[in-house]
Structure formats: C-alpha cells, structure tokens
C-alpha cells in the first residue's frame, strides 16, 4: 500500500465504520467515541500545565503490553501528565477509567489536519507507540516537531510492506522513530536490511506484565469452590472453531471442571457456547441461581477475569489458533507454570513459537489431537511437571524489557525528574 492507497484507506475507513455501525456494536462505539473528540481533548487538557507524555495503544492487548512501562513512567516522572489513546473500542471502553493514565481518549483518525491539531492540543514532549500501528501523519508530525518518538515491543516480519519493493512509503514511517525497541533479533536484522539502525532488541514488555499479574494474584472464591479437588481445564479467548474442537471433550469428561472464556462475550456467542457445552452456566449467574451438581463448565461472560483464571488450571487452552485472529496471549497462562495447548495457526506469534521450542506448549491440528494431549498431560505426571516448569521458566527468562526502555529514556534525558 503506497501513499495513494493509504490516503484512500484513511478516507474510506470512517465511512465503512458508519455503515458497519448499523448492525455492529463495536463499530457504533468507534464512531461515537470520535464524536467531538478534539473538543473533549481540549476541555480536558486546557488547564493542565504539566508536560505531557503520549502513549498510544491499538487495543486492549497492546494496553496490557504497555502497562508496565506506563506504570514505571508514572512512578519515575509523577509530575508529568500521561495521555493514553486507543484506536479500538475494545481498548478504550474497557480501560477508559484506568488510573494509570491521567487522560484517556480515542485517537482521532489519521490525517494531516488531525495530527497537527492533536499535537497542538496535547503538546507531548515524548511519544510512545506500543508494538505496532503506523499512522503516517501522526508519526511524521512528531519528527517534524523534533519530539522523541519510541516504538516499544515492536516485531516485524519479512512479509510486511516495509520490506517489499513497493514499501518506500511505509519505510518513511519507520524513519520517524527516534528509537525502536524490538522483541527479537530477526526484527532487528530485517530493519537493518532497509537501513533502519536506531534499534535494539529489548524483548517484550508483556512478559513483565504477566509476571506482575501472577505476583499480585488474589483468589476468586466462587472459582475455588467450583474447582475444588477436580482436574481443571481453562480455555481462554476461544472462537467458535475452538469451542467446536473442545466441546466433545468437555461434554464427555463430566468429572472434570472446565472454564471457558470466549473472546467475544456478545449475547450470540454466549448462547452459542451454552449450546455447545451441555452442562454449563454463565459466570454472572453464580450467586443468583443454584449451580446444579451436573454443571461442569463455567462460561465467563466478562472482560478482565481471564488472566487470573489460568491460576486454577491444570491445563490451559488458548483460543484463536483454529481460524480466529491467530492464537491469543499464551503468556498469561504460561506464567502460572501451566502447560499450554493451542491450535495450528500460531506462526506469527513469536511467544507461541518459542513456547513450543521450550516444550512448555503444544499445538494441535484437530479435536482428536486435542483430546490425546489433554489425556497424556493428565495421566503422565512426569510429562506434566516437565512441561509446566518449562512454561513458567520460559516466561521468567524473558522479563526485563520495561527496564531497558526506562534506562534509555533516562540516559538520553528524554524526560526530566
């Protein structure tokens, strides 16, 4: 996609969102969140004289990834105002009241006019983009204004347009960054091949985040009572194809406990899960109705609980690998020293690839393989303990990315204490 195609994209995206909003709640939130967005930003910041740090996250996953850094920034530089933006409603709507940031907004759609107005209004002295999302005008505006611009936990693949013969426009975006903190050596070498050398391999701040979650875990009484003295399998971020791979096993092993957390908690998906899992109840119903003895499955119908539920598992299954967006966050489970199982679509996710290499995870092609590996892990204690330890050790060996970014900020004096 060259510049012409990009300009067409940023013009058509809001139009497509308006059309989609007629029947899609997420699109409606995207549209509503950007109504009067500049007026909201201006009124929120006009009397705030503090210097501003702007952190941008695409969605909820990137927020979790950037959270350790945001916490350290607030701790080290408490007199700065931390402004957080989201592109996606799934990020903004879930975290709009999070206290880690001083101000939280939707990012206005990229354009030359919007970017200039945003910088004039916010006046950031440091800009941080988490993992990805490359918005041309926001990036070039930072460079033109000589504002330090960092990419944190970036990861690149050869198939991306940056590395194609037609990728000159995309390479211009990368040239705007003051420094790019990358997850792996492969990304560094790819960027080096296009003469982007202001880089370093700093790892992934998600490792710091999941370790923090595990270390601050608080028991959930209703889950403890449900799981007591039983084998427990937690399936997180599942899509329909994941549930169809799981349902036979769940319905057959009635003496085990299953916790299913679908990626989408819309009413249609929850009803679909209820139809697939024959002995299930929604988590929100606990306490309002009697949980019958034959119930062996909780369906989680909220956002935010899942990252703690993996603690109760004997085995964790991570969804998305059977035709969703690709396998979701395996680290949230592995940090608790749990073997992790997921579907065949994982190659784009380095943490899933590395977890397989470290023998803390398993990829399955179908429901039959899923059943086989579940049973093998449950029946073979030595295998289970080996894989569980491998998963936990992998996560702990990769922490420290946040400290590396903070060290750079301090050494370069990008902010003043």
TrEMBL record:
Active site per database record: 62 (proton acceptor)
Pathway of action: Bacterial outer membrane biogenesis; LPS core biosynthesis
Molecular function, one GO term: Kdo transferase activity
Domain of life per record: Bacteria
GO cellular component, one term: plasma membrane
Gene3D superfamilies the UniProt entry points to: 3-Deoxy-D-manno-octulosonic-acid transferase, N-terminal domain, Glycogen Phosphorylase B
GO process terms (BP): lipid A biosynthetic process; lipopolysaccharide core region biosynthetic process
Chief site of localization: membrane
Annotated catalysed reactions: lipid IVA (E. coli) + CMP-3-deoxy-beta-D-manno-octulosonate = alpha-Kdo-(2->6)-lipid IVA (E. coli) + CMP + H(+)
The entry's keywords: Cell membrane, Lipopolysaccharide biosynthesis, Membrane, Transferase
Residue span, 3-deoxy-D-manno-octulosonic-acid transferase N-terminal domain: 47-208
Subcellular localization, as worded in the UniProt entry: Cell membrane
Pfam families membership: Glycos_transf_N
Family per record: Belongs to the glycosyltransferase group 1 family.
Role: Involved in lipopolysaccharide (LPS) biosynthesis. Catalyzes the transfer of 3-deoxy-D-manno-octulosonate (Kdo) residue(s) from CMP-Kdo to lipid IV(A), the tetraacyldisaccharide-1,4'-bisphosphate precursor of lipid A.
Official protein name in the record: 3-deoxy-D-manno-octulosonic acid transferase
């Amino acid at each position: 996609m060259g510049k012409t195609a990009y300009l067409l994209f940023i013009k058509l995206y809001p139009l497509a969102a308006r059309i989609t909003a007629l029947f899609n709640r997420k699109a409606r939130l995207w549209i509503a969140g950007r109504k009067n967005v500049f007026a909201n930003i201006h009124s929120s910041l006009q009397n705030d004289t503090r210097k501003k740090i702007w952190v941008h996250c695409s969605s909820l996953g990137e927020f979790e990834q950037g959270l350790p850094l945001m916490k350290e920034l607030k701790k080290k530089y408490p007199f700065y105002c931390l402004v957080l933006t989201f592109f996606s409603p799934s990020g903004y709507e879930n975290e709009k009241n999070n206290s880690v940031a001083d101000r939280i907004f939707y990012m206005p759609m990229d354009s030359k006019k919007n970017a200039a107005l945003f910088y004039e209004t916010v006046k950031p002295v440091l800009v941080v983009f988490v993992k990805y999302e490359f918005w041309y005008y926001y990036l070039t505006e930072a460079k033109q204004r000589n504002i330090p611009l960092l990419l944190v936990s970036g990861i690149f693949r050869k198939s991306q347009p940056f590395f194609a013969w037609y990728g000159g426009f995309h390479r211009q975006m990368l040239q705007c960054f003051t420094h790019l903190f990358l997850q792996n050596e492969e990304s560094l070498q790819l960027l080096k091949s296009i003469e982007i050398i202001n880089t370093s391999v700093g790892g992934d701040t998600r490792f710091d985040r999941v370790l923090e979650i595990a270390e601050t875990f608080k028991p959930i009484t209703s889950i403890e009572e449900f799981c007591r003295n039983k084998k427990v399998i937690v399936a997180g971020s599942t899509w329909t194809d994941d549930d169809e791979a799981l349902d036979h096993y769940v319905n057959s092993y009635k003496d085990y406990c299953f916790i299913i957390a679908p990626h989408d908690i819309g009413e249609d998906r929850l009803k679909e899960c209820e139809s697939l899992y024959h002995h299930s109840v929604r988590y929100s119903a606990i306490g309002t109705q009697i949980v019958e003895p034959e119930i062996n499955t909780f369906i989680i119908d909220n956002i935010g609980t899942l990252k703690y539920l993996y603690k109760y598992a004997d085995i964790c299954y991570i969804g998305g690998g059977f035709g969703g967006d690709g396998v979701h966050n395996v680290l949230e489970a592995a940090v608790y020293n749990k073997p992790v199982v997921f579907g065949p679509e994982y190659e784009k996710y380095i943490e899933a690839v590395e977890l397989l290499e470290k023998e803390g995870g398993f990829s399955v092609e179908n429901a039959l393989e899923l059943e086989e590996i579940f049973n093998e892990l449950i029946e073979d204690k030595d295998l289970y303990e080996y894989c569980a330890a491998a998963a936990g050790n992998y996560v702990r060996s990769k922490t420290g990315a946040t400290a590396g970014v903070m060290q750079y900020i301090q050494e370069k004096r990008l902010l003043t204490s």
